[in-house]
Design goal:
Layout (H helix, E strand, L loop, with lengths): L1 H9 L4 H26 L8 E2 L2 E2 L2 H19 L4 H19 L2 H6 L10 H18 L9 E2 L2 E2 L3 H19 L3 H7 L3 H9 L7 H6 L9 H30 L7 H6 L35
Antiparallel strand pairs: 1-2, 3-4
Helix pairs in contact: 2-4, 2-6, 3-4, 7-8, 7-9, 8-9
Amino acid sequence: MLTWFQETIVEQRRLPLFCFFVALILAFVVTRVHVRLIRAGVGWFRNVSIGDLHIHHVVFGVVLMLVGGVTGLLVSAHSTGWYAFAAAVFGVGSALVLDEFALILHLRDVYWSEEGRTSVDAVFVAVAMTGLLLLGLRPLTWESIGGVPVHGGLAVAVLVLNLVLAVITLLKGKIWTGLVGLFVPVLLVVGAIRLARPGSPWARWFFAPGARRPNPGKMAKAMRREVRWRRPVIRAKIAFQEFLSGRHDLPSITASADRPRRARRVRPRVPARKRRFVPPRALRRRRPPRYLR
């Protein structure tokens, strides 16, 4: 294990990336444990507030990202140890920011609602991408094709082809296939060829009801695949997310927005009582002065 770490991480100058990776995971786990204890009302765990103002931990994350990023720029050429420390600080800040990614996306506090799962997905994506980079994989590249090294104009053509395949795969609703395919291009080919998910933009444009040329057969096939393969995976992912980060069981903001509002009861307006007209003081009849009487 130490030999692998020395050869793969230290000698390949990936120690700062490794520190970022470890700090990201540890900070996310500690943050989730902390907020779950706050939610349960355990002991002295409380939200950070200044008066009536609740300070979300994304604020601390932004500050730590700035500190870690600027420190890394200053010490990267002088000390590997300090550079790794700055990367770890940046990783802690990134975990705090990504843990409230849903708050940034919706501009509302949806931490424990259904939309709050987006934050956990964002952390999973960041961990997966960083892990692939640690293993030495580079995005959107082929080392060789049929034993022929890729360089020059061929490298540019491969890069453009990979980008096109990645966009098609993402438009077909296959997020994880598209993201991991950036590092393993074979997955991009598979994702671009296979049928799109029924709720994806690609399906709405080409074969779903309402498209220019709707194809009920393709839509039915996509729905069968969704029910048979996709939904069990989603249930397993949600179970793992709830085990790690807690239950997101508060009412959804989308559901509350779509809920019909009760009609407001309007009371009949009672006309005001007529008042006796009082003319202005200038128009009132005045008694003449005593000397004129």
